[in-house]
Input
Amino acid sequence: MEHISIWPVLVLALIHFFGGRLRFLAGVPRSVWLSSAGGVSVAYVFLHLFPELSEGQEKVEEALQAVSFLEHHIYLMALVGLAFFYGLERAVITNREEVHQEGREEKTSGLFWVHIGSFAIYNALIGYLLFQREEDSLKTLILFSVAMALHFIVNDIGLQEHHQKSYSKIGRWVLVAAIVVGWAVGYVVEVSEAAVAMVMAFIGGGVVLNVLKEELPEQRKSRYWAFVLGASLYAILLLSL
Output
């Protein structure tokens, strides 16, 4: 098939589509499979995605010659991605705590749309990057796809726990559409290599935060050994290829 990246896009979309059937992974203590999936995603970011950013730094420098402060700071976008999703997570948690303290029923709200909208943009950017990966080797596309698929499972479970019925009825459909739309935009719109590198950096920061926010809370009772095992095995795979 000419555009082979459509297959991983469909897999990622199906993860959200059938996310309700993955609820056996939710609950406390945290599933070893989720912790392992998080480890794989983080290993990919640090050992494959970030090294690629350093290679794309020259393109960013050329594009930002007029902005000397940013010339050597592609990782600033990774920090922006991490900080953005951290702020979003804090807002959602604070809102949920207020709802519980006041004893009122949690309903679909503006914050829900902000949360889902942000992840929709996140998904769309990943879909766009998948299309761009077609220019790389098949191996690179597969490694990226596997890491993102496992990351999507972690995100889906987290969003289900946050928004429950609202996510099942509305949110997951938005995210399914977003990943496909992002890939389709890549089909018709081509941006500079510098812009692609900046998007990769933002996604990298987002992946790290979105994984760790699910692993770190004490009440999750996460499986540290499973996280390390997932990260170690994928790191060995990345370094051996």
Q: What stands out?
A: The mean pLDDT is 85. The longest helix spans residues 75-102.
